[in-house]
Description:
alpha+beta; Alpha-Beta Plaits; 2 domains; 4-stranded mixed beta sheet; two-stranded antiparallel sheet; 10 strands; about 30% helix; about 20% strand; globular
Amino acid sequence: MDKAFFIDTTVCxxxxxxxxxxxxxHDLPAEKTTNRGxxxxxxxxxxxxxxxxxxxxxxxxxxxxxxFFPEQCRHxxxxxxxxxxxxxxxxxxxxxxxxxxxxxxxxxxxADEIIASCPYNIPRKSADGTLxxxxxxIDRVQNGLLPACVQTCPTGAMNFGDKDKMRKLADQRLxxxxxxxxxxxLIDPDDVRVIYLVAFDPKLYYEHAMASASDVGLTRxxxxxxxxxxxxxxxxxxx
Length: 239
Ligand code: SF4
Ligand code: SF4
Ligand code: SF4
C-alpha cells in the first residue's frame, strides 16, 4: 500500500527528537559544528544527516514568528532524481511503499546532476560520490513499525500511514489551521509522499521548502515529461 507522511509544522516545537532518532536508527555519526547563533544544527543536510529541523525567525504582519521545518526527502511520486539517474540498480521506487531508495551503486552516477535534479535540494554525496538521503526507514516499515522520526515525535507533528489517509488528515488539519492562519497551505500535496502543512508562505520556512516555477527540478521535469511522452508514443507507433 502506498505510504506517505503528513508533517504538521504548526505543532512542531523544534525539539529535534526526529533528527536524533533518524541518526540513531541509521547509526549515522555526529557532525562537528560551531555555534552559529541558531538552533538549526548542523547547518545543512549531509551524507550523514538525512533529517534536519530548519529554523527561521520571520516577522509576519508585524509579529515575530519562529518557523520550524523538519526537512527530509519528499519521496516524490514522479521522482526527478530517479529519472535523471536512469539506473534502477542505483535509484528505484519501492513498489510496496512508493518510497524512493538509493543504493551504493549511486557512486557510479553523476552526483552533481542528480542533486541538481531534485527540486527540494535533498541528496548529498560522500567523498567517493555515493549519494544518501532519507529512506523512509524502509526496514522498519517493512516490519510493521513506524519510521523512527515519526515514532519519536512527541507532539503529533510527524504522521505516517497509508497515502489516502495521510492526505485526508492533511486536508482536515489545513481546514482547522486556516481558521486562524488564512495563508496556511499544504506544500505540493499532489506531487510528493511527504506532505507539509505550513501556516505561512513556504518560502519563509526555507528557500527549498516547495518546488516553484523558478526551481529547475520538479517543474522542469514534469514539463519535459509532458513533452516527451507524446513524442515517445509517436515513435512507438512508427516502429
Ligand atoms: Fe518537531 Fe516532532 Fe521533530 Fe520535535 S520530533 S522537531 S516536534 S517534528
Ligand atoms: Fe528524489 Fe529529491 Fe524527490 Fe527525494 S525529494 S525523491 S531526492 S527528487
Ligand atoms: Fe530519517 Fe527514517 Fe525519518 Fe527518513 S523516515 S527522516 S530515514 S528517521
